Amino acid sequence: MGNSKINIAILILLALAMYPFGNIVGTYCPQQGPTDITSLSVGDTVIAGTQVTDDSKIRKVPLLYHPEYLGYYISNMEFLDVIDAVVTGTVKTPTDQLTSSGISKEGSAQGFTGPGILAVTDNKLTVTYPGNFVYGYKTPYTFGVKTNDGLKIIEGKNTIKVVPYDQINNGTVPHNYVNVNTIKDWYKSASNGDSITLDYAISRFNDGRNLVTPENIQSFFGLNVLNYMKNYASGRPIEVYTTSVTEKVIGTGADTVGYYSEYDNVKRAYNAHSFAEAWDGTIIPPHTTSSGKETVGFARVPDPEAPGGWASHGTCPSARSLRAASSEAGLGLPAGLQWGEYAMKIGYNPATDVTITNTKDYPIKIVMWTEGSGTSMNIYTKIIELVPN
Does residue 186 lie in a domain region? Predict the structure, then answer.
């Protein structure tokens, strides 16, 4: 024990003695840049525990150039690095010389919750913590292209594989958004070169982070975000992270289905409920525009005066409820709606063509529900502002 302490003391003295000369010589051996040692790309999303540095990329330098590194490893009792430096005459650059906040000395992300961003700050690799809310946009990413040989799968700009028609199944093609039977039906009627969107990424984030590919959405943001995303059309904003918030009701609306002898009132009640289902739970980030769920359908109600001989009657009472809440919240008239009893514009899909723009500085959540049944069914709407605590 006594000898080891003496040896350590000698190494420390050696490092101190070499330090001035090493500083002079070290000017001729430039330090690595922070982006030289990353295991990911700057701008990528990281969560706590993610390894953000690649040990194999960290350069060793002559011990003579940076004797202070030896002192670092001695003071941190990392004796394997000390022995390696003494034996080889070279020493590995300590990770914390190239990294700063949000990264441990072992090179993993730490000290935060939620989805962080790998960044460079003051010429050091850092992790930027998420703000009060993070959102991006649903973006087509994976495509199937019909070819003579089968279905060519393209991710981003890269061709991944070609799947013969008779091998299209849940194990060979993405099916979160389009089921296998639909893909096969499309393939049989498509021409060579036609494409179908199979999966989606999230891009154009409000905090500038890189696109997140489909396979990482659940691990970075959670299953709830992935399930939410499945319900909304391409190009719609997707809130992926929200800090602790207080829910503040800023608008309410209510209406009743009512009875119209000239229309099918059973289908009208169904459509009124479907409208509420399509919009319930929709979250619109600040200064963005969104619609309801594209996965909700509506019944055709015969109407000889409507284009095509039918309309989605029954959606107007729900539209009036949403319109009232939006107006009270200061968001104005939703696109696709109009003033008056017949609130729905002709030819607009009540879920995907009607849109609301959030002019507030915080996200809003739309809550819609129905009570009762048939023509006496009531439709209620709340618009809730999500204010960070």
Answer: yes
In-domain check, residue 238: no
Instruction: Name the average pLDDT for the chain.
Output: 89
Out of 128, 153, 182, pick the residue that ends a domain.
128
Assess whether 321 and 290 both reside in one domain: yes
- Shared domain check, 364 and 262: yes
The whole-number pLDDT of residue 93 equals 77
pLDDT per position as a tens digit, 113-138: 999 999 999 999 999 999 999 999 99
**What confidence tier does 3 reach under pLDDT thresholds 50, 70, 90?**
low
Domain span at residue 209? 133-229
* Same structural domain, 267 and 364: yes
Which contacts of 353-357 are long-range, i.e. CB under 8 A and separated by 24 or more positions? 353/291, 354/291, 354/292, 354/319, 354/322, 355/289, 355/290, 355/291, 356/284, 356/289, 356/290, 356/291, 356/322, 356/326, 356/331, 357/284, 357/287, 357/288, 357/289, 357/331, 357/332
Domain termination residue (choose one: 100, 128, 156): 128
Same domain? 277 vs 363: yes
Rounded Cα–Cα distance for residues 298 and 348 (Å) = 12
pLDDT, one tens digit per residue, over 295-331 is 999 998 877 777 777 778 889 999 999 999 999 999 9
